[in-house]
Write a structure and sequence with these properties.
The structure holds 2 protein chains of 2 kinds.
Chain A (H helix, E strand, L loop, with lengths): L1 H30 L6 H19 L3 H27 L4 H23 L14 E4 L2 E4 H22 L2 H11 L1 H6 L4 H23 L9 H16 L4 H21 L2 H18 L15 H11 L11
Antiparallel strand pairs in A: 1-2
Chain B lengths: L3 H22 L11 E3 L11 E8 L6 H20 L10 E8 L4 H12 L6 E6 L1 H14 L3 E4 L4 H4 L5 E3 L4 H17 L6 E7 L2 H16 L3 E8 L7 H9 L4 E5 L2 H13 L5 E5 H4 L2 H4 L9 E4 L11 H12 L5 H20 L4 H10 L2 E2 L7 E4 L5 E2 L6 E6 L2 E6 L12
Parallel strand pairs in B: 2-3, 2-4, 4-5, 5-6, 7-8, 7-9, 9-10, 10-11
Antiparallel strand pairs in B: 1-3, 11-15, 12-13, 13-14, 15-16
Helix pairs in contact in B: 2-13, 3-4, 6-7, 8-9, 13-14
Classes of the chains: A mainly alpha, B alpha/beta.
């Protein structure tokens, strides 16, 4: 029974991780921007969710919808103002810029809310659904559902619509796409907006489960990168499955050994999986030299363009 | 592509400036390099006109900022209180001039901060840092430059390294651990039967020390440690560890970690519908966020070196009132520690009648200060520089209906223990 409970807990917390990671993989896959500010945007979503609840009593799940729209607009504007100029740059300027954005957001949070954690006490935040002896928290179920829904919607958008074809064409070869009449700037700005919206949803659905603090940004940026490299850069389902794998490894590890060893085992598993699937779990047809991790490392070591590192969406 | 480079460069420069500006803005007294921000407080009296530069080195940013910020604010209030009350009377009312520096929760930055304060800022003493790691980072600099450093940490090595100019105004982890055991013994004498303890702790030096001490002390006192499990600080999924402690029959779960982990553990205990009591240390529990969790945190125990509600402490009410008025929030144990450290420096200045660091150090070795807000009526430092008395400066508080009541020891208690 402990195994089953650990497994369920892992799947659910993995869903929380996935909802955070999916926006990062979208931005990387479509726009070619490695966004080290992604966790800070999640944090901003968390703080705004807290603020809406604290000042107006808005339920966090309603906030998720409101903030998704708001952050989409912010993302589009952000692309026009900054990312548009960074798309053709190598990883170093991208990294420096997004790390700078992250520092600004974290310090703004520190200035406005102080260093303490902020939490929301909801009547249903600790409600559970029991199936036999397995207990599941409602808030984690909702977060898992949000991860599934977000992944599915992004999949449908990118693989079942004309806009999706434009997005994928832009990601594959921007110049050719432009020659074929695709407005790549518009496509990429929408993708950036969607990425920001995903981060906001992640921040909002996290609030009933955890809390938010200035440190949330760094914590989730690192985790999200691990997940998208594991799942395959640019793959939505990879982000979902990667998040769940990390969640299960941590949860079962903590069930049978302890949390510290579980953390170590998680990264051991990460390394082993990348040895056998260097492209990540959900990328297709690439050979080892183009593996997800090696592409990221190449970008760092050679200063290569992020465009060379785009994955398929 | 070339045409974009100036734009990107400009954007980066703007961001860097903004980051610096907001970083400093996170505290009205932050400083990152080249010395700190000087503030002599709002309550200068008409003294001799002389001012005594005292540094406050604390974590105003970074992961320890939830502790470091109130520590710095407490120290600031301590200086302002002294100044309002006429300054250092033995020095014709000389005012304490505070220079604050941010150690960024990083030992290396703490070392640099200490270098700036003892060098270009020329302070007579340093209050802080608040935290064992940063304290150990700043200590060698203070020793080398022979400037008294009154930092706060739970690590005994702070004062056991043989430093002559380093003082620890904090309570060692062993004192917290022993207090928890003594408290449980007393509770059991009163009719409770708490015999099984579960321990979960973060895997850094802070949490691991508590894990080792409690698992060693508890069996000697007749308690059974049913689980002792570590985790990485900030782990969002503590439920498996909490479940294991509950399944093993733990009646009390000790969480040796920081506020976020205590909150995560409290939520996990509640979702398990368990009656386990949860206990942790001072600043991890005695914060508004924990108090505002409602039923989730009601009954949580804090083993602390200070609590906002204590009986028989003459200056506690005024300290709380002034702190709330100035900083817009209730003081924490860290704020009280910062205040105590600054008042301790003031007492040493009174005795030394000098602002020379060596004279202040000599006075600190002898002075017995009455702080008026600490659990122990008087404090001093032993030959190693460790705050004394250790045991009497530790209390147990319990969150009861949104308020942290001191429930142990009886001399300062404002309430009684309530089982969950």
């Amino acid at each position: 029974m402990a195994f089953l409970q650990g497994l369920v807990d892992g799947v659910l917390i993995g869903g929380v991780y996935a909802v955070v990671a999916v926006g990062l993989t979208l931005l990387f896959g479509v726009v070619g921007i490695v966004n080290f500010a992604h966790g800070a945007i999640v944090m901003a979503g968390g703080y705004l969710t807290y603020q809406l609840y604290d000042s107006a009593g808005v339920d966090p799940y309603l906030s998720a919808v409101i903030l998704a729209v708001l952050f989409f607009v912010v993302g589009v504007l952000f692309y026009a103002a900054f990312f548009r100029r960074l798309v053709k740059e190598s990883l170093l300027p991208q990294a420096l810029f997004t790390i700078g954005v992250s520092i600004v957001l974290i310090n703004v949070a520190l200035a406005v809310y102080g260093p303490d954690v902020q939490s929301i006490d909801l009547p249903y935040s600790l409600s559970t659904v029991n199936i036999g002896e397995i207990s599941m928290e409602v808030t984690r179920l909702v977060a898992f559902g949000a991860a599934l829904l977000t992944t599915l919607l992004l999949y449908l958008l990118l693989w079942r619509t004309d806009f999706g074809i434009q997005v994928r064409a832009s990601a594959a070869d921007r110049q050719t796409a432009e020659l074929m009449g695709i407005r790549t700037l518009r496509v990429q700005s929408v993708a950036t907006g969607l990425s920001f919206a995903c981060a906001a949803i992640g921040g909002a659905v996290l609030m009933p489960i955890l809390f938010v603090s200035p440190a949330t940004g760094d914590q989730f940026t690192f985790l999200a990168f691990v997940i998208i490299v594991l799942g395959g850069l640019g793959s939505f389902f990879g982000a979902l499955v990667g998040g769940i794998i990390i969640g299960i490894a941590q949860s079962l590890g903590a069930t049978y050994v302890d949390g510290s060893t579980a953390q170590m085992l998680t990264f051991a598993l990460f390394i082993v999986l990348l040895l056998f699937k260097p492209n990540g779990l959900f990328t297709r047809g690439e050979r080892r030299p183009n593996g997800a991790l090696s592409r990221l490392l190449r970008m760092f070591s050679r200063g290569g363009s992020a465009r060379t590192a785009k994955a398929r969406v | 592509m070339e045409k974009f480079k100036p734009i990107v460069g400009t954007a980066l420069a703007v961001l860097a400036v903004l980051a610096f500006a907001t970083g400093c803005g996170s505290s009205d007294s932050g400083s990152s390099s080249g010395g700190g921000t000087s503030t002599s407080g709002s309550g200068e009296s008409e003294g001799s006109g002389e001012s005594i530069p005292v540094g406050v080195l604390s974590s105003l940013s970074g992961e320890v900022a939830p502790n470091g910020m109130p520590f710095a604010q407490g120290a600031q209030l301590g200086a302002e209180t002294v100044n309002k009350e006429g300054g250092i009377k033995a020095m014709e009312g000389a005012q304490i001039d505070v220079t604050t520096s941010d150690d960024k929760s990083d030992p290396e930055a703490a070392r640099q901060g200490a270098l700036d304060l003892t060098g270009s800022d020329g302070v007579s003493a340093i209050v802080g840092p608040d935290g064992s790691g940063t304290c150990l980072g700043a200590a060698p600099v203070a020793e080398q430059n022979q400037v008294p450093l009154l930092c706060s940490g739970t690590d005994p090595t702070i004062t056991s390294e043989g430093y002559e100019f380093v003082y620890n105004v904090g309570t060692l982890s062993i004192a917290f651990s022993e207090t928890l055991i003594r408290f449980l013994e007393e509770v059991n004498k009163g009719g409770e039967e708490i015999t099984k303890i579960g321990i979960i702790h973060e895997d850094g030096p802070y949490g691991s020390t508590f894990g080792e001490q409690l698992s060693s002390l508890a069996p000697k006192a007749g308690f059974e440690v049913v689980s002792n499990l570590s985790f990485s600080a900030g782990d969002p999924n503590l439920k498996p560890l909490v479940t294991r402690a509950a399944d093993a029959g733990a009646q009390l779960l000790f969480v040796g970690s920081f506020s976020p982990d205590v909150i995560t553990a409290l939520k996990a205990v509640t979702t398990l519908d368990s009656n386990m009591l949860v206990a942790s240390i001072s600043g991890s529990v005695l914060v508004p966020t924990v108090a505002e969790l409602g039923d989730v945190s009601n009954g949580v125990l804090a083993i602390a070196n200070w609590n906002i509600a204590m009986n028989n402490r003459p200056d506690l009410a005024s300290f709380t009132k002034e702190y709330e008025a100035e900083f817009g929030e209730a003081p924490t144990a860290d704020a009280a520690t910062g205040y105590m450290a600054m008042k301790s420096v003031a007492a040493a200045l009174e005795q030394a009648q000098s602002s020379e660091p060596a004279d202040i150090k000599a006075a600190l070795d002898e002075v017995e200060a009455e702080i008026g807000i600490t659990p122990a009526p008087k404090i001093n430092y032993d030959e190693e520089g460790l705050l004394q008395p250790q045991e009497e400066t530790t209390v147990v508080a319990q969150l009861q209906n949104g308020k942290f009541e001191t429930i142990y020891p009886a001399e300062v208690a404002t309430g009684k223990f309530k089982a969950k």
